[in-house]
Write a structure and sequence with these properties.
The protein has 189 residues and is mainly α. The chain is 66% helix and 0% strand. The chain has helices at residues 12-25, 41-53, 59-67, 70-73, 78-85, 87-96, 104-114, 120-139, 147-162, 169-187. The radius of gyration is 16 Å and the shape is globular.
């Protein structure tokens, strides 16, 4: 397949190609929640939030949302993403990708430090990703996560999201509502 040319207008075929690519890459993965849902549900949810909460139709941003965990959590290479989906998509994905060779606490610290310096598109992906994760931590957490650990996750996610402010007021308001509902839910458990 030759390099993908990214259109200015919405391209459903390219978006579906990204969904198919991510589904194949994540096919053997499950989310950590009690219900072990298929991993692909997560990037679809992230892209859906970006498209449906604010109506973003920017193809590179939506493609990056679908593909945001492929480099971090699968054997996908940056060259592979660039070849199939273009440099713009790769740039966004790389901005939101953690270096799994680093210790977990350092990765978390770097997310907080890096967030204010991301592109607007990467901030959208990061905010939607945090919203999806907050919902999971609140409603379908890993079985071994205590209430305290779940609250610590919310505190950290809020620090990351603070660095993403200014990218999209509607998505930021959705984040605020999501985290408030999660905190309220956890207080009742």
């Amino acid at each position: 397949m030759k390099n993908a040319k990214l259109p200015c207008a919405f391209d459903a075929g390219l978006l579906l190609r990204a969904v198919d690519f991510a589904a194949v890459k994540h096919r053997d993965q499950r989310r950590k929640g009690v219900d072990s849902s298929p991993y692909i549900n997560h990037p679809i949810s992230v892209a859906s939030m970006i498209a449906n909460i604010e109506g973003v139709q920017d193809i590179p941003t939506l493609l990056a949302a679908i593909l945001h965990d492929t480099i971090e959590d699968t054997c996908t290479t940056p060259d592979e993403l660039e070849k199939l989906f273009g440099q713009d998509v790769l740039n966004i994905v790389m901005e939101v990708t953690d270096d799994k060779d680093l210790p977990k606490l350092k990765r978390k610290r770097l997310q907080v430090e890096h967030a204010p310096h991301m592109s607007p598109a990467a901030k959208l992906v990061k905010l939607a990703d945090k919203c999806a994760n907050i919902r999971d931590v609140s409603e379908n957490p890993p079985a071994d996560w205590s209430i305290d650990r779940r609250m610590e996750y919310l505190d950290w996610a809020e620090r990351v999201a603070a660095g993403c402010r200014g990218a999209n007021k509607t998505l930021e308001a959705y984040f605020d509502k999501t985290i408030m509902m999660a905190r309220d839910r956890l207080k009742t458990l």
